[in-house]
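tool_call predict_complex ligand=pyridoxal-5'-phosphate
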Amino acid sequence: MQLETDFGNADLIHAMQTLDMAGPFRAVSPWELEDERGVRRINATCYSALPFGERHPELMEFVREYFEHNRSKGLPQQSVSPWRAALQHNLITLLARFSPSHADSEILLSNSGAEAVEAAIKFVRGGRPNARYLVNFTAAYHGLTWMALSLTPNHDYQDIFKPLLPDVVTVPFGRIEAVRETIGGLGPKNVAAVIVEPIQGEAGSSFRRLDFFAHSVSCVANTAFWWWPTKSRQGSAVPGTGSRASLKASSQTS
Ligand SMILES: Cc1ncc(COP(=O)(O)O)c(C=O)c1O
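tool_result ok
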């Protein structure tokens, strides 16, 4: 209490002392607190896990078990986590009642296109740790967070924030030969990912080069890279698992 008063929120402590609500309390049950004079109060605190009461036994047991058994790598923003996957699965199952074709979609739900790109690159970095290059295309737009901005080769957006992520190699959009040459030149094992929009948006939502997208995908798939559709301007398809196996399913959603 003294430390909280000295270094924490002293005003709040003062207000709680004035209202005789500052404790110290002993938890009699998750929802009952007893002060030093034996006066019992209802525990009506409510933030985070506190609606479950003070050290609710079932919650404590769950947390203890979780930390004992869950040793999986947790990435920032929880892009990859079994819990998030379970929630996503349940949500997709619900949505598929109205849109059955999505029943088996492998989708990472995220708050924005940029976050989807961040997650996608974290996946590929995790999956291909020794591959340093990311390949993108001229006039691409992948968002404005750090990684997404690094992959958006536009001076207006990038210049004041440079230096950005290194090892991004930009290939002219629409030239499949350039894709092959670049991947060949860098060495396929050194390329972590090729990121491509099915229909480029910043370049004027042109449908004329849809065939380029198809060719890029088959070129990339043939060299066993990960392929990752993110958001398209026309819809909001966000990544599948990025494996060759998911290529077909993923491209249908874009
Ligand atoms: C292909 C693509 N990727 C990423 C983004 C970034 O999305 P957001 O603005 O939701 O971060 C956009 C936005 O238009 C986009 O079109």
